[in-house]
Design brief:
Layout lengths: L1 H19 L2 H27 L12 H22 L4 H5 L3 H5 L5 H38 L6 H29 L2 H19 L18 E2 L3 E2 L5 H22 L7 H45 L7 E11 L6 E10 L6 E7 L4 E8 L7 E4 L2 E10 L4 E10 L33 E3 L2 E4 L8 E2 L16 E8 L5 E4 L2 E6 L4 E10 L4 E4 L2 E6 L4 E6 L14 H19 L7 E7 L6 E3 L2 E3 L3 E2 L2 E5 H5 L3 H14 L6 H17 L15 H4 L9 H14 L1
Helix pairs in contact: 1-6, 2-3, 2-6, 3-6, 3-7, 6-7, 6-9, 7-8, 7-9, 9-10, 11-14, 13-14
């Protein structure tokens, strides 16, 4: 065995030396060097000498991630030309028979060649990461950006290495079986073209060996979002590459030296092929089961749309986060009323199916029968609830909500109907998150029982709203900030216990938590609070010397909102909370499911925060004012910068950012106070108010 490995390493070392001397490899290296320099050095210079590049480039290591993304894209194609030479050198030099007569078995020879190609490309990627690290150090020195390179390393492990293994093995297989280098190049290039122009993300993305179209964008807050089937796909290509390598050994044009080894390699190739087939079938089965479940769940909820529903007047939440057993554990006591003219024998609620119900009792301790399926909690009362009567129930449950299986009526293609910036290239879309000390649970995720069903209303009406008050008790890590509706009435940071009171009825409840830094100020209309990741806004204290002027500007903006809408801000607090850039807004059959806007809460994508280099903006405006002979006093410049800073939050509008109404506070003025059933009217009033402001 030691001699077998020694032969592999020796052949691999010789193959690397041959590759390092080829023009193809140096062309690929030059492309990688240019891309890294462009993304690292280019964005650094843009930040130093001009205003900020887009906020995505200020996230931790995102520029390095994007550099490796683009290089991996090109590398996955150019590797075809490098790997196709693995027999060419010996054949052209007429040394193939001499080389094959050496006491090295075919398996050692092919595996060594394979390792030589793969290792040379891995070494190149490592060299580029080192170069990117040096560039990040300069960026950290000049712009205070973090040095974090973890996203780039994760991308290489998930995307780059399986792509290198597969394409190298595929080319080896074609060279061994077809024995024509030109054909061994044309076929893989045709496969790549088919991916780019036809397959793309079709067929669960199993043809996309290089992650050309896979959403892999990292966030500072949560890292990579749900990777879904992508990890299965990457494992498939890794295993399939090993199978192709085994078959390349079997088909290699050389007499068999060791029949036992040949049988062993054939057995290995068969086993790896079966594992690869199993992975594909497993994912197909999982996807089929999921789609069938979603189809049945949607049909089930649609059949219940016209059933009479109850109303909840008050919730008493007792929520424990990141405890033993489940990331979310909740006990909810809720007061239920019957607003209908007929008695109710069954109570329908929407509750995320991923949450496991432990107990359901009346306030007197009587256990009630229930059924929880297809995101619908059906409670069967022993005595019907008469009109205008009420009952109190206590529900305990735990788990991790799966929002992807809760919003079932989302439309598949919304590009022409909703414009929302999706970050550089591609990214995944999530509507909730509960992991790694970050909590983002909008009411649309079904993390608590909501009267009625969540979908199935079609195009002509929206799901009815339930306005309720609440008392929310949260237990969790003491180092986190917790944001929800209402005002905080007590806190015990030693025990990690916080209590909020929602005194004005709201149509829904959300929950955010994270290691945020908080800035807040009480205004005449409401208290404004900003919860942000400390590394994203290090220069906010720059405005401290003009605080009074800044506060006057905010109050004026709130007065303008009140004048335009004709309504005073209805809640005691308006909180701006930073969230990962993967959070998404969905268009559904019954209107926009805007998970970024909640009663009294506006969730801001982290790129909206990182896109503000306050000190640089002040410096640039001062230079511009001097050139034009205008007032360049530091207090005035800071005031102007602050007003623009707040306008981006309160009235966001830039052509490349898409629809500004999707994360402005106008929805809080109207739609979180009035139950508008018509989805067109609901959206039209929101847009109208935004344009008037």
């Amino acid at each position: 065995m030691s001699l077998f490995i020694k032969h592999i390493l020796a052949v691999g070392r010789a193959e690397r030396l041959l590759i390092f001397r080829t023009a193809k490899f140096w062309v690929l290296s030059g492309i990688g060097l240019f891309i890294v320099a462009l993304f690292i050095l280019g964005t650094t210079l843009a930040t130093i000498f001009d205003n900020n590049p887009p906020g995505e480039f200020m996230l931790q290591g995102t520029d390095a991630l994007l550099a490796m993304y683009l290089f991996s894209f090109l590398q996955a194609i150019l590797i075809i030309f490098i790997a196709s030479d693995f027999r060419k050198t010996e054949v052209h030099s007429r040394l193939d028979q001499v080389m094959y007569s050496r006491p090295v078995d075919t398996a050692s020879w092919v595996i060594g060649k394979f390792w030589g190609v793969v290792s040379s490309l891995i070494y190149l990627n490592i060299a580029l990461i080192v170069l990117a690290s040096i560039g990040r150090i300069f960026k950290w020195y000049f712009t205070d950006a973090s040095i974090g390179l973890q996203p780039a390393f994760i991308y290489i492990m998930i995307a780059t290495i399986p792509a290198i293994l597969f394409m190298t093995a595929l080319v080896f297989f074609f060279v061994s079986s077809l024995r024509l280098q030109a054909l061994s190049i044309i076929l893989p290039i045709g496969f790549v073209a088919a991916i780019l122009f036809y397959f793309q993300g079709k067929f669960l993305g199993f043809f996309d060996y290089a992650c050309f179209t896979s959403p892999l964008f990292a966030s500072d807050l949560i890292g990579f979002a749900d990777l879904g089937y992508l990890l299965y796909q990457r494992l498939f290509y890794t295993v399939f590459a090993l199978a192709l390598l085994c078959f390349s050994i079997i088909l290699f044009p050389r007499p068999v030296q060791n029949k036992k080894l040949q049988h062993f390699v054939l057995l290995g190739g068969t086993i790896f092929s079966l594992i690869a087939v199993f992975l594909v079938l497993r994912v197909v089965q999982m996807e089929k089961e999921l789609q069938n479940w979603r189809k049945d769940a949607y049909a089930f909820q649609k059949s219940l749309v016209n059933k009479a529903t109850c109303k909840v007047s008050h919730y008493d939440f007792d929520v424990k986060l990141f405890g033993d057993g489940a990331p979310l554990q909740a006990t909810v006591q809720f007061s239920i009323k019957n607003p209908n003219a007929e008695p109710l024998a069954e109570l329908l609620f929407s509750l995320n199916q991923a949450l496991k119900i432990h107990t359901l009792k009346s306030i007197a301790g009587e256990t009630l029968p229930f059924e929880h399926k297809f995101n619908v909690l059906n409670i069967r009362l022993k005595q019907p609830l008469t009109p205008a009567d009420s009952i109190e129930l206590i529900l305990t449950y735990a788990g991790k909500p799966n929002a992807d299986d809760f919003i079932l009526d989302r439309l598949p293609d919304q590009d022409d109907l909703i414009r929302k910036r999706e970050g550089p290239f591609l990214r995944s879309s999530i509507s909730s998150w509960l992991d790694n000390d970050f909590v983002i649970l909008p009411m649309e995720s079904g993390w608590y029982p909501i009267p009625g069903v969540a979908c199935g209303y079609g195009f002509r009406r929206r799901p009815p709203k339930n306005f309720a008050t609440a008392r929310i008790t949260i237990e969790g890590p003491a180092e986190l900030h917790y944001i929800t509706q209402g005002r905080q009435i007590s806190s015990d940071s030693l025990q990690g216990r916080y209590v909020f009171a929602v005194e004005k009825p709201v149509p829904g409840f959300s929950l955010n938590a994270g290691p945020y830094k908080k800035l807040s100020r009480k205004f005449r209309q409401a208290e404004l609070a900003l919860y942000y990741y400390p590394q994203h806004l290090p220069a906010i204290e720059t405005f401290s010397e003009i605080a009074d002027t800044c506060f006057e500007a905010i109050e004026t903006l709130l007065d303008e909102f009140e004048t335009v809408t004709g309504t005073a801000y209805p809640y005691p607090q308006l909180s701006f909370v930073e969230i990962p850039t993967q959070m998404q807004i969905y268009l559904t059959e019954s209107g926009v499911r805007n998970t970024l806007l909640q009663p009294g809460i506006i969730m801001l994508e982290e790129t909206a925060i990182t896109g503000h280099n306050i000190e640089k903006e002040i410096e640039l405006r001062q230079k511009k004012a001097k050139r034009r002979g205008r007032d360049d006093s530091i207090r005035k410049i800071k005031r102007d910068v602050f007003i623009d800073f707040m306008l981006d939050f309160l009235l966001p509008y830039k052509a490349w950012q898409g629809d500004g109404t999707l994360n402005s506070p106008l929805k809080n003025y109207l739609h979180f106070q009035v139950d508008i059933q018509n989805p067109v009217l609901h959206r039209a009033l929101e847009v109208q108010y935004f344009e008037r402001c």
